[in-house]
From TrEMBL:
Organism in which the protein naturally occurs: Leptonema illini
Enzyme's top EC category: hydrolase
Family, as annotated: Belongs to the phospholipase D family.
Name of this chain's protein: phospholipase D
Domain PLD phosphodiesterase: start-end pairs: 115-142, 287-313
One MF term in the entry's GO annotations: RNA endonuclease activity producing 5'-phosphomonoesters, hydrolytic mechanism
One BP term from GO: lipid catabolic process
The protein's Enzyme Commission number: 3.1.4.4
Lineage, opening ranks: Bacteria, Pseudomonadati, Spirochaetota, Spirochaetia, Leptospirales
Keyword Hydrolase: yes
Reactions mediated catalytically: a 1,2-diacyl-sn-glycero-3-phosphocholine + H2O = a 1,2-diacyl-sn-glycero-3-phosphate + choline + H(+)
Keywords: Hydrolase, Lipid degradation, Lipid metabolism
The keyword Amino-acid biosynthesis appears for this protein: no
Length: 577
């Protein structure tokens, strides 16, 4: 029997109307459940979403762990109070910029995330078996007046524990988290630790998708905006519905609008959300009327969660991000997009291309420079994708850059000197979305091994693997591997960039190389077997890898789960012992 899908308040789209008796079997029906708010629907239909969440809370037997940003719905808070009164263990975590007066009035203790940025995750775990999450806040406006997604999935207890630990101890997240639920495959990441991997996944999904549909509340990511333009120019159908206080409220100066204006006749379509359903609080403040989704539909995948397309979501907020592969859910998400599209208004644009992004690009002192305008360079794939944004007179990559440039300090190719062969990144041969004079028409290769095209990715071709070092001394210039295959080249990624280390001596598993003035690095070994087949082996030398290196290591897990079923272990250098 096919798994039933219930669309909550989207009854007119995916389900026939039923009486309230429908809710009686929801607790027993198969998951996952996808619930879309529908602000323009009747009150009866809109209340179904809240009723579903309340019933799940009332059914809790042991524990509820709840991470929220907005929480003011009285029925949900009453359900939490009933749970506490019957002895259910509650752990409630909110954001320091929000008011939780309703919890205080009910005597429910809560805590606030004590870090820079918002506690923006929206996730409830019940008895470590039921997960409720999505794009919406647990508020009156979030569930009844804004356009949002909520979903419910049954998960294994071990997965629930991993999620809890990843939220509780943000710097120690074990990623990616994955589970299956009745044929649906879920994968999950948590920002900010994996914010750059999430950004890279979103950008690459746009660049390589055949069809891209976006429903988003906040969109300020310049790399993603340019990716939408590049994809549309390459023939991908790109459509986005974005929140706007009014239908003419999109700023013509923001990056999304600039990229959209440059699309000309390309299949790039931007819509201002038309949700006008609002209510006014006792203090006169207006609530609701928002396009609050953070959802992208790319071919057969759904990318959603609390993650807005912004640098604050990437770098500082606590956020959740889900990849969902569920053939039975796709029609529901497409129906939601089309419902919102019908209520939205197309944003006007000129029928011709505006000025190219690459006007004024120069090459100075080993760096591409764009003092007048900003430029995007996109190259590579997977964990080795780089979407570089240059937009200042110092010719330096902007912090908005995506992918395998985790920070200015760990900018591969920026300052490292390679003794031979191609660099990890060769800015002098960078490809951009517009034509450039020679020698800037070919290159920006992400690795010097087996890479010869714009979407080079050695790991996706099965040419890389993680290895463990037995012992290593970076300052002493030696290491001992656990295997004895000959090493042809050795590259180190550290705070000074990517540097090729001269190999001085090899004897079995022992390797002597030019000493390095660093205490932590990723090591890329180029090896060959007896048949001459090449392999890239990736190792880590660090007592505790800096966040920038850890992000790269964990990106390997996300993009190549079959090649990296477990994290690459880090060996503490002898000088750090």
């Amino acid at each position: 029997m096919k798994r039933l899908l219930f669309c909550s308040v989207m009854l007119a789209v995916a389900c026939s109307k039923r009486t309230d008796d429908t809710l009686a079997f929801l607790l027993e029906r198969p998951t996952p459940v996808y619930l879309f708010t529908m602000p323009e629907a009747s009150d009866v239909e809109r209340f179904r979403l809240r009723s579903e969440i309340v019933r799940r809370v009332d059914a809790a037997r042991h524990e509820i762990v709840f991470w929220f940003y907005g929480l003011d719905d009285p029925q949900i808070m009453d359900a939490l109070k009933r749970a506490a009164d019957r002895g259910i263990q509650l752990t409630l975590t909110g954001s320091s910029d929000q008011n939780y007066e309703g919890l205080e009035k009910r005597g429910l203790p809560y805590r606030l995330r004590a870090k820079t940025g918002l506690q923006h995750a929206k996730l409830m775990l019940i008895d470590r078996t039921i997960l409720i999450s999505g794009t919406g806040n647990f508020t009156r406006s979030g569930m009844m007046y804004n356009n949002n997604l909520f979903f419910i999935s049954r998960i294994p207890e071990a997965v629930a524990t991993t999620i809890l630990n990843s939220l509780e101890f943000e710097e120690q997240g074990d990623m990616p988290i994955s589970w299956q639920d009745n044929g649906a495959l879920f994968r999950m990441m948590i920002a900010p630790l994996h914010g750059r991997t999430i950004q890279s996944e979103l950008v690459q999904s746009i660049l390589h998708g055949r069809s891209v549909r976006v429903m988003i509340f906040s969109f300020t990511d310049a790399v993603m905006a340019t990716a939408m333009l590049v994809a549309a120019r390459n023939g991908t159908h790109v459509a986005a519905i974005i929140e706007s206080e009014s239908r003419d409220g999109l700023s013509p100066k923001d990056m999304l609008h600039e990229a959209y204006g440059a699309a000309g006749s390309s299949p790039f379509f931007l819509y201002a959300d038309g949700n006008e359903r609002v209510y006014y609080a006792e203090d006169g403040a207006k609530h609701g009327g928002k396009q609050h989704h953070k959802t992208m539909i790319v071919d057969d995948r759904i990318l959603t969660g609390s993650f807005n397309y912004s640098l604050s979501a990437r770098d500082s907020n606590l956020e959740t991000f889900f990849e969902i592969r569920d053939p039975q859910a796709l029609p529901l998400f497409h129906a939601e997009f089309e419902r919102l599209q019908a209520l939205s208004q197309p944003v006007a644009r000129p029928p011709y291309n505006s000025a190219p992004f690459t006007e004024g690009l120069t090459y100075e002192n080993g760096r591409l420079c764009m003092p007048e305008r900003q430029v995007q360079l996109m190259r590579g794939h997977g964990a080795f994708f780089r979407g570089l944004l240059f937009r200042d007179a110092n010719c330096a990559p902007s912090s908005a850059s995506a992918g395998f440039q985790s920070s200015a300090e760990f900018d591969p190719g920026a300052t490292g000197v390679l003794s031979s062969g191609r660099a990890l990144v060769d800015y002098r041969e960078a490809e951009v979305s517009e034509s450039l004079p020679e020698p800037m028409t070919d290159g920006l290769l992400p690795l010097p091994f087996y890479c010869d095209g714009p979407h080079c990715d050695p790991c996706s071709a099965g040419l890389c693997r993680g290895v463990t070092l037995d012992r290593v001394s970076l300052s002493g210039g030696w290491l001992r591997r656990t295997i004895e295959s000959p090493v042809r080249r050795l590259l180190l990624l550290h705070r000074s960039g990517l540097e090729e280390a001269e190999i001085i001596e090899q004897n079995g598993s022992f390797l002597r190389f030019k000493a390095q003035a660093t205490s932590s690095a990723l090591l890329f070994f180029y090896t060959e077997d007896q048949q001459g087949n090449g392999q890239i082996e990736i190792a880590c030398a660090a007592r505790t890898p800096p966040a920038a290196l850890k992000r790269i290591l964990l990106a390997l897990l996300w993009f190549y789960p079959s090649r990296f079923p477990a994290p690459v272990p880090c060996t503490t250098p002898d000088e750090s012992l």
